[in-house]
Structures are given as structure tokens and as C-alpha cells.
Design a protein that fits this description.
This protein has 206 residues and is of the alpha/beta class. It is built from seven helices and nine strands, in the order βββαβαβαβαββααβα.
Amino acid sequence: MNEHNILGSILAGGKSKRMGEDKLFLNLNNKTLIEHTINKVKKYFKELIIITNKENEFFTKNNLTTVKDCIEGQLGPLVGILTAMKWAKENSPKYSWIASFPCDTPFFPENIISKFIEESKKKESLILCASSHGRKHNIFGLWSIDLYDKLYNDIVNNKVRKVQDWTKANNIKNLEFEFVDYDPFFNINTAEDLEFAKKLSLKINK
């Protein structure tokens, strides 16, 4: 399945401060964290871009399109979402949506991608984001490109920085995911998180 009017994007512009090293390329189950995300997402979209301000031979060796933040200053993931929208607008008129995914959440359920595709056809909301047991995971989102001008204005002129603040103010629709043993949207920020992820991976793959 390759969805033609949705651009896939992976947000990989964080500073990895709590990890102490670039977490994109940390190893989990013989794959880097970003590879776990890429391998899931690329099956569903015709085109995939990586929003990152870093340069690494991994990207060139794997023919990956990287895009730097369209507003300098590392102002957070909202700028990453804006950057993906801008790239879509400038590179292909066919895109109506961008789907965004974080680079550090290796266990996320692939069916969220199918749900994004289904919801885009309903056109009931301009923003859809994941939620699990009431906890918001706004980086897992489907965003209408019609929101570009408003998002740009809110970032530049209204100084909005938090994704959750912006989605809440713009009629977000949450897609709820249930879980039993572990939250599949668990993200890796610290060395302790990585160790937990390794143990969890062994448990899942038994």
C-alpha cells in the first residue's frame, strides 16, 4: 500500500540531551532506532522525508531525503511539522496531508498508519493524533497541509512551541489505542530507557 496524497515524515531534530549522544543511531535488536521507524513507515507511503539538522552518511547511503528545519533555532517538533508541510507544498501538488512519526519510539503499532490513511479519506478533522489510555502522543499525527499558514503564524508571531497546546486549540481528533502489557508508544530518551527497550524487545520477540 502506497498512499499518494500523504507525505510520510520522521521527526529527528532533537538534541538527545538526556541520552548524552545521538539516539537516532543507537542499536536496538541489530537496528538503529531510526531504522525501526523507517522500516515501518516506508511500506505505506510513496515518499518519506527525514526532518533533521544533522548530517550523517547513513542518510546518503540509504537514499533518504533529509530536510532541515525551515525556521532556525531548534524550536521543537512543531517546526518539524511545519517543515514537512512546507516541503510537501513546494515539491508536489498531490499532497494534502503529512503524517509525522518520532524517531525514538520503536514499538509503535503499524496499524496507526492504516488508521491515518482511513481517517484522511473521511475528512472529519484537520489534525489526528495518537492517544493510549488517555495519554496524548501528538508527534504521531496526521496534519492537513491547509493548516500551514496558521501554524506558521502561530510559531512565528504567537510564539507557540508546544505541540499539545497547538493541537488542542485546533480541533484535534484523537485516535485511541489500547494496550495491556506495555505502552507501544513508549519513547527512548535516556540510557535507562534504552536498557528497558532491550529487555522489552526480548520479551516481545520470544
